[in-house]
Amino acid sequence: SEFEVRLAGSGTTFTVRTGESVLDAALRQGVMLPYSCKNGTCGSCKGTLVTGEVHYPFHPPMALERHELADSKTLLCQAEPLEDLVVEAREIEAIRDIEVRRLPARVMEKTLLADNVMKLVLKLPAAQRLQFLAGQYIEILLAGGKRRAFSIASPPSSEDEIELHVRHVEGGDFTGWVFNELALRDILRLEGPLGTFFVRNDGAERPLVMMGGGTGFAPLKSMIEDLLAHGDQRPIHLFWGARTPAELYQEGLVREWTQAHPHIQYSSAISEPGDDAAPRGFAGFVHEAVVDTYPDLSGHDVYMSGPPAMIDAAKQAFAAHGVHTDRLFYDSFEFGA
Ligand code: FES
């Protein structure tokens, strides 16, 4: 049986099939709702149930606090309707018209950026482009229906090539294969663009704080290069955090940005500074560096990308420092094994 979902604000309606989440049904029908992890942990897909009831057959809605459940909040990536629903959720206009495609892509470059980070440059077939918004991600399709998600590190203007930063996960079958076996000119299959992490240009000319953990730098790099390409003058303060300085694998590029563009600032944070090295940057977690620099975040738009634990800690810290929740955008990813 199918149920109907109506969005409270816009009145947009779509149908949900048995066994489908509200989010999947919306995306299938071209209704763009915010999401990132799709497994119930990040909270990007949070909405409010105005009427109707849902259940969570696969994952409990971990990203919801108890009081939020009591307030009829729901995680649309996990929620399946038990009846027709009216839901309050932000519909995203900007990516509505971007088509999600499956494409083969050829490996053109494989460069080690750090001990555990590999840069891949993939070339799309002749005359094909992947239309995307800076900050979105693609999935690499593997045998047996498995997928691995990677943010696009290059800006949309780089035409028929896309750059990925692949972090080697200890014991990870796919990333181990990328590091050791994947060869130049091999073909990968990908699907994208995906996700709703992109810079909002909605007239609020607020300064941007961007925060990345490890390879969470990748989508921010795409965003910054895209903003520069468009001559956007909003001040940008990039914070990049990692365990060790070596994991800040493209600081040379970041310094080129800050030297050429006075509106870009950069700060680093190292969470495991050794005692021998001269102290460099902020010693601690990168979200601590952000609130140390900006005790009041109420005037900023904040974009952040990193593993779930970092994003969760940052959400709480930034809320305590005045960030407007509708001006906080994030991409939360597990490192794909
Ligand atoms: Fe639903 Fe992350 S919790 S997309």
TrEMBL record:
Its cofactor is [2Fe-2S] cluster. One of its GO terms (molecular function) is 2 iron, 2 sulfur cluster binding. InterPro entries: 2Fe-2S_ferredoxin-like_sf, 2Fe-2S_ferredoxin-type, 2Fe2S_fd_BS, Beta-grasp_dom_sf, Cbr1-like_FAD-bd_dom, FAD-bd_FR_type, Flavoprot_Pyr_Nucl_cyt_Rdtase, FNR_nucleotide-bd. SUPFAM superfamilies: 2Fe-2S ferredoxin-like, Ferredoxin reductase-like, C-terminal NADP-linked domain, Riboflavin synthase domain-like. It comes from the Bacteria. Residues 3-93 form the 2Fe-2S ferredoxin-type domain. Pfam families: FAD_binding_6, Fer2, NAD_binding_1. Residues 100-200 form the FAD-binding FR-type domain. This is CDP-6-deoxy-delta-3,4-glucoseen reductase.
